[in-house]
Predict the 3D structure of the following.
Amino acid sequence: MLQSFVATTRPEDGPPRLHALREALAAVGVQGWLVPRSDAHQGEYVAPCDERLAWLTGFTGSAGFCIVLPGEAGLFVDGRYRVQARLQCAPEFTPVPWPETKPADWLRAACPNGAVIGFDPWLHTPEEIETLEKGLAGSGVTLRHLPNQIDLLWTDRPGPPMGRAFTHPETLTGATSAAKRAQIAQALADAGQSATVLTQPDSLCWLLNLRGADLPRLPVVQAFGLLHDDGRVDLFAHAEKFTEMTLDEGVHLRPPEAFEPALRTLTGTVRLDRASVPLRVLDLLREAGTEIVFKPDPCLLPKARKTDAELAGARATHLRDGAAMVEFLCWLDAQAAQLVADPDHVLTEIDIARQLEACRAATGELVDLSFDTIAGSGPNGAIVHYRVSEESNRRLLPGELMLVDSGGQYRDGTTDITRTIAIGPVGAEEAACFTRVLQGMIALSRARFPRGVTGGHLDALARFPLWLAGCDYDHGTGHGVGAFLSVHEGPQRLSRISTVPLEEGMILSNEPGYYLEGRFGIRIENLIVVRKAEIPEGGDARDWLDFETLTLAPIDRRLILDEMLTTDERDWVNTYHDRVRTLIRPLVGAEAAAWLDAVCAPL
């Protein structure tokens, strides 16, 4: 099994560690400490050695941070994680609703007489610290760079990851590393920039056509890089990771400890992404007198615009993954029927996660999961990013909803799909909520929009059916997805806060949901890709875009209230299911094929 169901943290570990941290802070003369979820690469996934937030608080979600003060420890989490934070953390850690509550405002209220708050400049970006300092201006609360105080206390901290790197072939990328480096280098030269500092592993892996095994669920090599305006790259990483491959000409491998000295020697104008580079990098360049320009990571947009080869890989991946999902859903339906017929039949959330992983592994192509499977039954489905453990594992019960959010990493692509399934007959409220979520997903799937539109413009389409009923959800509607890279990839997203125009080749998730704490959760998710659209008859001669749906798996028709759908919505469901049946049926066994025929019948 690729995933484990052993809980990695315990609430009772937090209080003594919090006490030790407060003693350490007092010894160095500061009154507080910032504990981010991030590492020096500012990615969503972190290695075990960088799980500082989980080590201190017990919270294992993928976003959030803690501010430790002498009498209070605020755990800042967004709407996806508030239920989870209450379950995983001791009462000594107070959940704070974020981003509604800004850390500067919280610190002002908690420290009316001022305070010195320490932080590790390798773990925070210039944008983050500048925003915090601006919010604290005039409050008497100041920030101080210090060595990481948690690392000094974490006596059994794991070592850095040493996974092997390997080449990602041009047949799957659609472009050589040399061509990518030349493209980005030319953009630097045209802008008068001599070099850029690359700190995000997925950018470096995209640029160099590399993949690796340093992080679970994310096939990257952890490294730092300097890309120069002539296309040369200095790559700072442990040489042991590269013993099974040869780097391209013009890519020079350096030891990690050479990174800081190399920064001090840079000349000309150096480009930094103030939203992702560690503050320590900025400090080193400023100490050296280097001219700096703040611009986004130059790899982000080219990486987001998938090549024809990457899109072909994504379609092939979704055929394979769709077949695995159909085999799984067929199995689950049979299990649910047995559970309804026999009260003594036992089916648990861990059983669900294991079976789905086995179905993906049976393809013979699975490299890893793209994230730990979210298998939430009944009330656990309302925990948006629920991770089942041996302690939380529930038996499924008749009349409940089962929310399964999962994905796979394959050499030719990355998948992410959510289906909500009825375990026997469910109530009218659950079906009505499911239908509204489906209507929002359909509205986004059918969207046609002119070039220049952002995800922030489209987000409301998916929420509108829920809003009409006075309902909403506390997460974005969609995130970008990589090509055998991160399942959460920027800069594109479907969210109120997104300002990035959507462009051809960008892959996104389309995943509205609805959650009633303590009762049930609903989410339906397909991956979609932006493509050039036809001008409808009588339409304006503009540059139109729309979405192609990549994900191929049936939606539970038993939860759809047909009378709530418009004719266009009903037609979309029937057309989608006909496509799923046509493409997936030849790829599955006889039992799954017969099941697929039944569940894809027209509404």
